[in-house]
Amino acid sequence: MIDFLFAVIAAGMSGQGAPSAGITAPPAPEAPVTVQAPAAPEAPASPGVPAAPAVPVQKASFDMSVVPAGLQAEDQTPSGKFTTATEVKPILNATRGNWVAVREYEGKDYVYVTHLWSWRCGLAAIAISVNDEQMQNWPMPPCHTEFSTPNAILNDDPNPLLTFKPGSVEKVTIQVVYDDLSMDSASFARGEVLIP
Q: Compositionally biased, Low complexity: which spans (predicted)?
């Protein structure tokens, strides 16, 4: 049955079996037809909903004192192994809410950056500030390019966590430098990143 259906469709597309008498192509237009998009409405589309104010987007301020000296932009040819900013930046932008996590465990506050370390091969540096304290550079383990998963966190690598007094972490700010030397940062309130 399906073969018959495909045969009918194919015959229709090739014009075979279609009567040719009385069927003519439409005449070509004499002048090009111009289509203009409708103008944007001046008033909000929904009554009672105010238009968004035209506020300029503020650029994040970066703490350059914690950026390691001598960084140089790396080649951005995609490797397929997520080892460049070109490959990891879209992922980290989409998963910004996972950059950091806070957990109450064994009478302490734990701050994790496991997610960032899992994409560290496209990063040049990470810095952290807890409760608006001075930003601190947080050294990352090396990228393990000798393995098929260079971003893996191995047993010999340091742990991607810091510990604090219980209930003391109220805000965490993270600053990242990608290996193309572009930068990004994000701040999170405790409730936004608290995990069980």
A: 31-51
Q: Which domain holds residue 113?
A: 73-195
The number of folded domains in the chain is 1
Residues 43-79: pLDDT tens digits?
Answer: 444 444 444 444 333 345 788 888 989 999 999 999 8
pTM over 0.70: no
The reply to whether 167 falls in a domain is: yes
State CA 137 to chain mean position distance. Answer: 22
CATH code (residue 141): 2.60.40
The closest of 136, 126, 128, 142 to 173, measured between CA atoms, is: 128
